[in-house]
Automatic annotation (TrEMBL):
InterPro entries: Pantoate_hydroxy_MeTrfase, Pyrv/PenolPyrv_kinase-like_dom, Pyrv_kinase-like_dom_sf
Name of the featured protein: 3-methyl-2-oxobutanoate hydroxymethyltransferase
Top-level taxon: Bacteria
Functional summary from the UniProt entry: Catalyzes the reversible reaction in which hydroxymethyl group from 5,10-methylenetetrahydrofolate is transferred onto alpha-ketoisovalerate to form ketopantoate.
One MF term in the entry's GO annotations: magnesium ion binding
Keywords in alphabetical order: Cytoplasm, Magnesium, Metal-binding, Pantothenate biosynthesis, Transferase
GO process terms (BP): pantothenate biosynthetic process
Gene: panB
Amino acid sequence: MSDSVPSLYGGPAGSRVRTRHLQLAKERGEKWAMLTSYDQYTAQIFDEAGIAVLLVGDSAANNVFGYESTLPVTVEEMLPLVRAVVGATNRALVVGDLPFGTYEESPEVALRTAVRFMKEARCHAVKLEGFRPAQIKMITGAGIPVMAHLGFTPQSEHQLGGYRVQGRGDDAAATLLRQAREVVEAGAFAVVLEMVPGDVAKQVTAEIGVPTVGIGAGPDTDAQVLVWQDMAGLRPASAGPTPRFVKKYADLHSVLARAAAEFAADVHDGAFPTADHTF
């Protein structure tokens, strides 16, 4: 772990962050970071950097498989990604995202999907979108930790009319707060709040007893999450404008493009490989 990033809970090297450590962090007022990850190398880097939670998100649909939305990604596509992230980490709590269509039908269907993620991919918790207290209760009743996700939920973008802020206005804010309370009562150990007005997210954070994870929800949530390709500046300009809530901490797109161009030029000019690269 990076010396500049304090341990979330001070556990010995090689021991995992657990949901109880996240709860204790909320009680101490200690904020923590979550990033997406879909492969062994980023998982290892983020783990060593002190990222407390890694989300193997259904955002792999856009950022790994090249789909236009998160809707097409399947369980069979997600499970190998989750396995890779779990196997490459020692400390981070790894959360697997349940794909669209694998939990909405009933609590029983949701449980079957969650069990596959735990047994076949070995993640430590699952996440599901929307107001699904019955599903959460069924899954947590089987001993599987669940992270809830309220506000803007990408799997419901068509129903919500596109990427729009949720919880704006008194009635919508009251509904969001009620939903947050109910998913916590159902057993959720944390609640993602996406594209929610900052004052609403602040109220939810103050009034529910579990950690909130913000993305486009202001500075007052207990934690923050970003898609790692957004955070590191890997997305090309052709992918569209960067969301307002994203802060870019690097420009990996330019770095990789330059490296690839230099490699191609060296091969073309005969500068690579040299005797140093030859058996």
